Amino acid sequence: MQVVVKNLNYTYSKNSKSVAVKALKGINLTIEEGEFFGIIGETGSGKSTFIQHLNGLIKTTKEDCECLKIGEFDLTEKKCNYKKLRSKVGMVFQYPEYQLFAETVEADVMFGLKNCKPEMTEEEKSSAVKKALELVGLNYYEIKDKSPFELSGGQKRRVAIAGVLVLEPEVLILDEPAAGLDPKGKRELLKLLKEIHGKTVKTTVIVSHDMNLIMEECDKVALFHKGNVAKVDAPENIFKDKELVSLCGLKFPLTASLYHALKEKGVSLKTNLKVENFIKAVTEYYKGEQR
Amino acid sequence: MKDVAFGQYFPSNSVIHKMNPAIKLLLAIAFIVAVFLVRAFHFLGFGVCFAFLISVTIIAKIPFSKMLKSIKAILFFIIFSAVIQIFFNKKGTPLWENGFITDVALLNAGYIIVRITLVVLGASLLTFTTSPVELADGIEVLLTPLKLVKFPVHEFALIMSIALRFIPTLLDETDRIIKAQKARGADFESGNVFKRIKALVPVLIPLLISSFRRADELADAMDARCYAGSKNRTRYKKLEVAFKDVFAIIVMAGLITAVVFLNKFNLIPYLAAVV
Ligand SMILES: Nc1ncnc2c1ncn2[C@@H]1O[C@H](COP(=O)(O)OP(=O)(O)O)[C@@H](O)[C@H]1O
Ligand SMILES: [Mg+2]
Questions:
Q1: Residues flanking ligand 1, CB < 6 Å
Q2: pTM beyond 0.90
Q3: I need a surface site. Which of B15, B17, B119, B225 has the fewest CB within 10 A?
């Protein structure tokens, strides 16, 4: 499913002028099916507000938006089928473990199925839950009868993500999924997201402050700045634009910092800034110097 | 959720905002007393009260639209009280032959409307110009005499300010959890009453758990800073009585005197006998 957004505006507390906050000011972007799409930007730049539009948690109207389409769903229409949309577009919030509520892990993961696919039999539901839990790297039989509250932080987060994956969404949206995890947990979560991407999930949209992750993994990146999209491009082109990234208040991934530092010394490398490619470029340059 | 106006503090840097909250609280109570001192049908007293309210609103830089909104919130209550008066007060003479509405009833309804409006506006001026935390401080000061009877005034005030402090946080959290469950297809808007109540379980449980977690964290943070209750504690913000506070007290004394004085003049003398 392709995501098309044209001139999307949103204002919080629109009705009272004194506290109204213009959070989105004319967003334009397109996310193609199959992309691993990154969204970066300072705190308060409108990232969370934007992605909440993508599965109708914040509703838009024709007045505020020229076009907001996800596959066949037109979200500017009043009669858009949100239940169906939400099973196609999964949303994982920041700190998703705070949404766990049921007595057992199995019941919690099944919550979405009960809401969106009530026609399934108990057996079908159980096997879907098993699949989702295995997808996030948990052992179904070990964990299904445990209380979600007795799990470790990382496990809780996986269970919460399984609770979204169980609906087999085609588009998966994650708002800072790695926040609050230790480096190992972060790496594992990322590996998992890469594995899921391309299975049932076709398109992944990830909001992250981890520039190294964005640089390394994303096919395309949107740079948000004060409610606008400053640039949509391949990550290397974004991070090679030193002025823009600094203006938007962001840090650089490691390779980009080195790239810019070397450039100041008069060394211009030919690289797409991914770690392996960068190392190759540096070694080649070094060999060239020695000759 | 943030649209739910609570406490309705309206920040600004006016003199009224900077007044000592304890004194402001006392003066708000005095104002309400003044409103109740105005005798029935002595509308001149109300005129003075209104003049006072409008001046304070202007000095405090509160937009009048805000004030009107706070009346709107209890409009139903005001109308209800007035209607009861109009239909059930049988004193005085009917307005038309054999009519069921009397002149006294009508005037009484007006009297009640004005009275409630004044009280509500006075109270909202207090909450508009005093942040919840300041208000809790003010209450603590006013309750200090209760220490004599071993009432834990400080703890009481602390509980109050913590509760006030966490209301916006809880509203935010509720908003987030509702959205997270909606993203999993939860439906809070359809079905009968029982269905809707049941639909709230996935919101209330995470909310409860996170409240306990927050409470724990707060307790730890307070422990870590050696908080040990009220004993030998000094205040970070000393509540001092400044010139503006004294001035405000004088103005309020003037207002009450004026109201009492104006109570002597009856605009509608022939009704005085009825009431
Ligand atoms: N519920 C809300 N009510 C009012 N303003 C909000 C709310 N949520 C976010 N905002 C404001 O909208 C802007 C964008 O916020 P957000 O989308 O959360 O940014 P980000 O996720 O990029 O940090 C910010 O200025 C923020 O203060
Ligand atoms: Mg955010």
A1: A 12-13, 21, 23, 41, 43-49; B 2
A2: no
A3: B225
